Amino acid sequence: MEYTLNSGGFYLPHKTVRRITMEKTITKQAVFIRELIMAGILLVTGVLLPIGFHTFKLGGPVFLPMHIPVMLAGFMLNPLSACIVGFITPILSTAFTGMPPFPVVMSQMAVELAAYAFFIAVFSQRLKLNSYVSLILGMISGRLVCAILVFIFSLTVTGYKGTPVKFLIGSISKGWPGLLVQIVLIPFLVAWFKRIRLIEK
């Protein structure tokens, strides 16, 4: 019987090594497929939820429905996948519904939502912070990133009248009901998803 030296310094039979390698490959494929499916579901939800709010006049700009699935992506996907979901969601929404308006508002939201999802994923999965802390730090980080983008737009886009301070004040004063909904609803959903094993504990 032939043996192979593994990384732990032990000799294992070739068949055992092949079986372990195959199991790792299958696990990676399963994780990739799961991430792909979850990303697709969150993307579709991020496009359809604002349509529902707009159709029934539920105050989409106030309650920020697109933010909810994107922020959930931060808890359910790896940082890169979550960031991609956050970036693509407003772009798809603009392509299908015309909202958010192209190009400036859509660009702002794409960067802002990508930052939310990325930082929430880092705080919750890499730094292992609890869902409330991860969510709040992610919200702060996303708004700061978007404030920087607003500053860049103010220097480069002709006729653009936004400023970082105006953006931060406006996003809080107009969207505070949505912020409260996010702070209450998202940790509850995260806890429920952990219970039904949609999110690893």
From TrEMBL:
Transmembrane segments: 36-56, 68-92, 104-123, 135-155, 175-193
An MF annotation (GO) of this entry: transmembrane transporter activity
Protein name, entry field: ECF transporter S component
Native species: Treponema pedis str. T A4
Keyword Transmembrane in record: yes
Keywords, in A-Z order: Membrane, Transmembrane, Transmembrane helix
Pfam families reported for this sequence: ECF_trnsprt
